[in-house]
Specification:
Number of domains: 3
Low-confidence stretches: 1-11, 391-397
Strand content: 5-15%
Number of helices: 11
Largest sheet: 5 strands, mixed
Mean pLDDT: 78
Distance between the termini: 66 Å
Order of helices and strands: HHHHHHHHHEHEEHEE
Radius of gyration: 32 Å
Structural class: alpha+beta
Number of strands: 5
Amino acid sequence: MTANNPAIDHDRPLPARFAFDRHTWKEIAHLLANLPIALIGFVYVAFMIFVGALMSVTVVGLPLLALGLTGARGIGHFERGRARSLLGVRIDEPSPMRGPHRRDGLFPWLWASLKDPVGWRTVLYNFIRLPWGVLTFTVTLVGLFVLWPVLPFIARGLTNADRAMVRGLLSPSDELERRIAELESDRGVVVDTAAADLRRIERDLHDGAQARLVALAMGLGLAKEKLLEDPEAAARMVDEAHGEVKVALQELRDLARGIHPAVLTDRGLDAALSSVASRCTAPVKVTVDLAERPAEAIEGIAYFTVSELLQNVSKHAQAKSVSVDVWRSKDRLLIQVRDDGQGGARLEGGTGMAGLAERLDAVDGLFVLDSPVGGPTTVTAELPWRERAAVTQAGPR
């Protein structure tokens, strides 16, 4: 609250003053404008709901309702601005609606829009405002010509009710509902990602190690049959089987490394990222500046983020040098991967960038890509820092 504007940032009803100062005139202007603005808002939301409900049996009804809720957010933005300029009510703008990306299709976007609590509270606000607008316009208009001496008291009382409505229905107070909606969307991403990883592991086992082990069993069976009648052929077949065992073991090691590398568990990000960097086609300088290790889940996400980015560098960048920097800033784990390649990478370019962005978003992370044509490409990723759980080992009993 400022000394020359007592209306700003007050959470309790303001006392009336027997004076026609500029604050009183602002309140009178607000009350007189209530009726036409409330009428416009009421007609909009009534038409939106009527048309959306009437046409909900068709393919266009629900999308119209979703678009109407998005437009209601715009009305709420206007009303917050009007209350801010005329009533001195300082209310933060609600966060933008977060839902599935447009590339996910119509139905995920439609569902997220229809569940938007900010849009629905704005609809309720506009329904309430029509009778209130008629009342405040009439009382204020009568007060200007009949109740002039007490009009400041009337204006202050009516606008205090306006302030309460704006704070109650248009303020971003329903953070819990929005957070729940965001977590529901993020949970879907996590479930889809986990399902895709399981399918990848199943495919790799079926097409790789399992196929080799089947061939190995058949080869050993044939070698057993030839052991007495053709020992030399049996020996060659056993030797071939021995080679197949080595290949199968290597494939299983690679698959296990793709699930969760042992070096990450045993030695942390520095050693694990250095191991990944050694397989990149371009020289990689790895710098990890961490006084302690983050939680296992965060450490794993950081590892696989860098691993996939370095794979993209090997496949697409044609880079001569790459740098990987990992450090902690307060409660965030920051990762930056930079290469001097040809650039031009895009989130929608099919290089796995969009999947990385979704994975980080699912854990309240951030993914920023800067890749002008001609390079260099810089990817900055942020993850929430979570403390590593203490590991206790039980002694002998």
